[in-house]
Amino acid sequence: MTGTMKTHRSIWILLSAAALLACDQNAVQEDEITGPVAGLARVKFFHFGISGPGVNFYADDRKMTAIASGTGVESTNGTAFGGVGSGGLYTAIEPGQYTLSGRIAAATDKGLAVANLLATLAAEKLYSFYLSGIYNSTARTQDAFLVEDDVPPLDRSVACVRFVNAIFNSAPMTLYVKDPNTTQETMIGGAIAYKAAGAFVCVPEAVYDLSTRPTGSTANAIARTAVSFVAGRAYTIAARGDMTVTSTTAANRPFLDNTANR
Fold this sequence. Notes:
The chain is built from 1 helix and 19 strands. The chain is globular and about 50 Å long. The protein is mainly beta. It folds into 2 domains: 23-148, Sandwich (Immunoglobulin-like), CATH 2.60.40; 159-260, Sandwich (Immunoglobulin-like). 35% of the residues are buried. The strands form 4 sheets. Strands 1, 2, 5, 6, 9 and 10 form a 6-stranded mixed β-sheet that branches. Strands 11, 14, 15, 18 and 19 form a 5-stranded mixed β-sheet that branches. The longest helix has 19 residues, at 3-21. 7% of the residues lie in helices and 44% in strands.
């Protein structure tokens, strides 16, 4: 092995070790494709709380997500607004009752919980925990909610999609997916209120244009184009942001986030 190859291998080992040390040693991260860890629950963590500080996510006092810096020391940035903890992967934990929280990652107020949610996690179940609403900088609080990810059995002939509404000031909305090549539009479940999730609906593999509409309206409330759904996979489309924002570039504009569950 050349000196260059040895150096590259050493750097890879150090970076891998830093990433592992950034999270609590008891937290188990797992890719969606590998299947459930026997006897454990799994949780995915989203920061959709507008104007909120970067956070690390916890179950009781067990750290479930964190971010390593280039030096191997935990970053004080945490998971920022619009982000998903652990790179979008589930984190496994023993079933039971926990207080799930997002805690400030910055040096100022470090470890302060901006949201606490008591939840019971069942074995072999998947969940998504969301910070949501607008951050109250005086009380240092944020909304939070938990939904079960009831992913359908694997079917390699279709992709499965569901809708979660994380916009605090939205009316109940329905998600639609449209194949621009065939113009076929499919309604994904029914109208979903804030802090709720719809059921998974399976559609053919394709690149879709997405939109949401309030009940009784033909006008799109939020739209996103050219989203690929791959057969055999399952996806959550989650609405985040502030419905009063009209800018097309603002970070807190209404937006449809796409994250794979499998």
